[in-house]
Amino acid sequence: MSDVPPVYKTGFFPKLIFSSRWLQLPLYLGLIVAQCAYVYLFMIELWHLVTGVAKLGEQQIMLIVLGLIDVVMISNLLVMVIVGGYETFVSRLRLNGHPDQPEWLSHVNATVLKVKLAMAIIGISSVHLLKTFIEAGNIGTPGAKFTEAGVMWQTIIHMAFIASAIGIAYTDLLMQRVSAANKNGH
Q1: DSSP string, the chain
Q2: What torsion, rounded to 10 degrees, do the Cα atoms 160, 164, 167, 172 define?
Q3: DSSP string over 57-99
Q4: Model's pTM, two decimal places?
Q5: Cβ(135)–Cβ(145) under 8 Å?
């Protein structure tokens, strides 16, 4: 037998449909550009922190640091979407054995990616909510960034993110159980 892989004979439309996945490539490249924008934003905020540390109060420093953490978490989310999405929906990256391959990439699929994204969104939302809570003491004063209703809605939206993530994870668990039962012949 030959070691040459079999030639897959498909019609024009199946080839066209399958090839359409490459239309996502510009989207992932655009997300890389967006990540560059976040690196730029991070550097500006870091410079603001370093050059103003003597003039800034503890609360201001904490808010800037939370902003930096927020940028990093959004950047992590971008990496998950870019790498995981490309690997799942476009083409294999063929990183097996590469020392820098992320651990999660070896078992990524659309469902795992959704759960990871939901958790990242909750993390980002948590940072935003923490920033809001820190500034909530200024509610009712001139120049306050937030109102009581704004804080309440941010909290409700954050809880909705948590409920959604729990729903996604629970659905994934049910799908795994069904898949395992089908493999076992039940």
Answers
A1: ---SPPP----HHHHHHHHGGGGGHHHHHHHHHHHHHHHHHHHHHHHHHHHHTTTS-HHHHHHHHHHHHHHHHHHHHHHIIIIIHIIIII-----TT-TT--GGGGG--HHHHHHHHHHHHHHHHHHHHHHHHHHGGGTTSTT-S--HHHHHHHHHHHHHHHHHHHHHHHHHHHHHHHHHHHHTT-
A2: -160
A3: -HHHHHHHHHHHHHHHHHHHHHHIIIIIHIIIII-----TT-T
A4: 0.69
A5: yes
| pLDDT tens digits for range 38-74 | 999 999 999 999 999 999 888 888 888 988 998 898 8
Residue 170: both structure tokens together: 């629970």
Burial level of 53, CB count in 10 A (0-12/13-18/19+)? Answer: exposed
Q: Per the structure block, which two tokens stand in for 155?
A: 């909290």
Angle between helices 110-135 and 148-183 (to 10 degrees): 160
Confirm if 163 and 125 have CB atoms less than 8 A apart. no
Contact 108, 89 (CB under 8 A): no
The mean pLDDT value for 1-14 works out to 66
As a whole number of Å, the end-to-end CA separation of the chain is 38
